[in-house]
Amino acid sequence: MKILAFESSCDETAAAVVEDGRRVLSDVIASQADLHALYGGVVPELASRKHVEAIAALTEQSLREAGCGREEIDAVAVTYAPGLIGAVLVGLSFAKSVAYAWDKPLIPVHHVRGHIAANYLAFPELEPPFLALAISGGNTLIVDVRDYTDLKILGATRDDAAGECFDKAARVLGLPYPGGKPLDELAQQSQGGVYTLPRANVDGAELDMSFSGLKTAVVNLAHHAEQTGRPLDRAALARDFTNAVSGELVPRVMKALELTGRRTLCAAGGVAANSVIRADLQAACKKAGCRLCLPPLKLCGDNGAMIGAQGYYEFLAGNTAGMDLNAYATRAIDR
Ligand code: KG4
Q1: So what's the pLDDT on residue 335?
Q2: 7: phi then psi, degrees, rounded to nearest 5
Q3: pLDDT at site 111
Q4: Which atom of ligand 1 is nearest to the CA of 139?
Q5: Pocket test for ligand 1, best of 13, 109, 113, 166 (most atoms within 8 A of CB)
Q6: Rounded to whole angstroms, how far apart are CA atoms 205 and 113?
Q7: From the alpha carbon of 164, which atom of ligand 1 is closest?
Q8: pLDDT digit of tens for each residue in the chain (335 aa)?
Q9: Using the 8-state DSSP alphabet, how is residue 82 labeled?
Q10: Does 114 sit in the ligand 1 pocket, CB within 6 Å?
Q11: Structural domain tally of the chain?
């Protein structure tokens, strides 16, 4: 079964063709990062407009690269939540138009379910059940993937997402948007151990996380240095900050593995590209004797192929939608 899939929840417009949820026939992405870098963050209205400009040509390119015409496409999958509402609406409206005009089933896909499904593309033999650590610009979740479409949240951030925290920390360190990758590169220049940063625990919810205090601490350190003229060891701060984020994530997900008895952990989302977090997960899973799936960097960030992968399993579960399907800025992954 060949699925034409769309993703437009933030600042990447993406279209892909995926066969049987596992084989990527094409995967094209138009990133808007350079545009939003001018403003130091995503400007939602500009994102929506850029999606409108890009999506038709990307669709043609995706079909061409996959060697498919409309006859070969069996269904259309699209991110319907969560994300910037205007941005999601562009992809959703376009996908609806294609599904209607071509008379194909329309499959709604939750964006974070898509991120987790990137693992099905990277690890063709992977099957649920497993645990997923979904860490992106807007979400930070520990998820029990009981089956392809049966997911349960075990832990979540109570405030900022890990990616949002990386982007804010990067900004005060003078790094360009999106800051996760440049901050990762800067952090590699230091072993850290210079700055003491706060760690948070959520009372009565040992798998939940909080990142806003950490974010504020980095912002205050940077501003204090600026105002007093004291030197700031930017690389050390980047490293200590990254270690602190990893220190929030890794022990909790290992605890979740212990509590559930699951033996496989899959990382997902843009922040799963972070070199320190990847290394820490590798070390922790090796020690615990668990299998770790780390998708290649290309599959960590937003892409259309992951939506096509999850779309296949949503279709098998009967999760299709009518033309009244709406977009949602927020939506639980386990609804
Ligand atoms: O998954 P993604 O592409 O988009 C969302 O669904 O949100 O994640 C984007 C986030 C951004 O916050 C970006 O700074 C972060 O992923 N990111 C990283 C790295 N690469 C991207 N964060 C830390 N280290 C990285 N190497």
Answers
A1: 77
A2: -140, 125
A3: 98
A4: 7
A5: 166
A6: 23
A7: 12
A8: 999 999 999 999 999 999 999 999 999 999 999 999 999 899 999 999 999 999 999 999 999 999 999 999 999 999 999 999 999 999 999 999 999 999 999 999 999 999 999 999 999 999 999 999 999 999 999 999 999 999 999 999 999 999 999 999 999 999 999 999 999 999 999 999 999 999 999 999 999 999 999 999 999 999 999 999 999 999 999 999 999 999 999 999 999 999 999 999 999 999 999 999 999 999 999 999 999 999 999 999 999 999 999 999 999 999 999 999 999 999 999 87
A9: S
A10: no
A11: 2
**Euclidean distance between the first and final Cα of the chain, in Å?**
26
Pairing assessment for the beta strands 140-147 and 130-135 based on DSSP bridges: antiparallel
Distance CA 62, CA 16 (A): 6
- Residue type (1 letter), 87: A
Distance 83 CA to ligand 1 centre (A): 14
The CATH number of the domain holding residue 10 is 3.30.420.40
Amino acid at 53: E
Answer yes or no: is 305 within a domain.
yes
Range of the domain at 62: 2-116+299-316
Same domain? 240 vs 255: yes
Residue nearest to atom 14 of ligand 1 (CA): 180
Would residue 327 count as lying in a domain?
A: no
